[in-house]
Amino acid sequence: MCNAYCISFGAINLKPEEIKGKRVIEVGSYDVNGSLRSLVESYYPAEYIGVDIAEGPGVDVIGKAEDILDRFGKESFDIVISTELLEHIRDWRDSIHNIKNICKAGGIILITTRSYGCLYHGHPYDFWRYELEDMKHIFSDCLIEKLEKSPSKGVFVKMK
Fold first, then answer.
1. Between vectors from CA 25 to CA 19 and to CA 29, what angle results, nearest 5°?
2. Alpha helix segments (H runs only) across 14-160
3. Angstrom distance (rounded) from CA 120 to CA 100
4. ∠ CA 145-142-28, rounded to 5°
5. HSE-up of 111 (CA within 13 Å, CB side)?
6. How far apart are CA 150 and CA 88, in angstroms?
7. How many Å apart are CA 52 and CA 35, to the nearest integer?
8. β pairing state of 47-52 and 61-62
9. Is the dihedral of CA 60, 125, 102, 48 positive or negative?
């Protein structure tokens, strides 16, 4: 699930040379109202896999974020994208652990999520809100290249 601000953040911060020939996974890929997939695929990745808990547009593999490390293995992707997912996962710590671990050393993680002030939007659940300081803390073991607050009441981060 994405919005125009997420797509803009991805378009500005994901470069063709970072993606060409690389393995990409999108965690939380169900396309409700927009996706980075067509943009990223236009940069010719070697593979693009969309994972979500239900079948639908943009979903190649059905599964939970909590299970992606077991399913795909450690350091199996060059780029991990997750837009508007973290607020919907009760056990976000496990999911973040898995996202970090399926990404290869030196790979790219791009995440967007909701911040305080965003209204409840269960798809099917809505548990959390994050702020810039939360992202700094959660990803303190990563090299944060870009961290910004979105006008749409969200937080966006790109890191290695």
1. 120
2. 16-19, 37-41, 68-72, 92-102, 132-138
3. 27
4. 85
5. 29
6. 18
7. 13
8. parallel
9. positive
The first and second tokens of residue 103, run together, are: 């990404």
pLDDT in tens, 18-33: 999 999 999 999 998 8
Q: Which residue, among 16, 83, 90, has the nearest Cα to 52 in the 3D structure?
A: 83
Mean pLDDT of 144-151: 96
Query: What is the C-alpha to C-alpha distance for residues 104 and 138, in angstroms, rounded to an integer?
Result: 18
Mean pLDDT of 6-11: 95
The CA distance from 47 to 141, in Å, is: 27
| Percent with pLDDT over 90 in the chain | 86
pLDDT tens column, 58-69: 999 999 999 999
Both tokens assigned to 66: 């909590």
CB–CB of 155/139 below 8 Å?
Answer: no
**What pLDDT digit, counting tens, does each position of 42-53 carry?**
999 999 999 999
Amino acid identity at 141: D
Tell me the two tokens of residue 151.
Answer: 């006008």
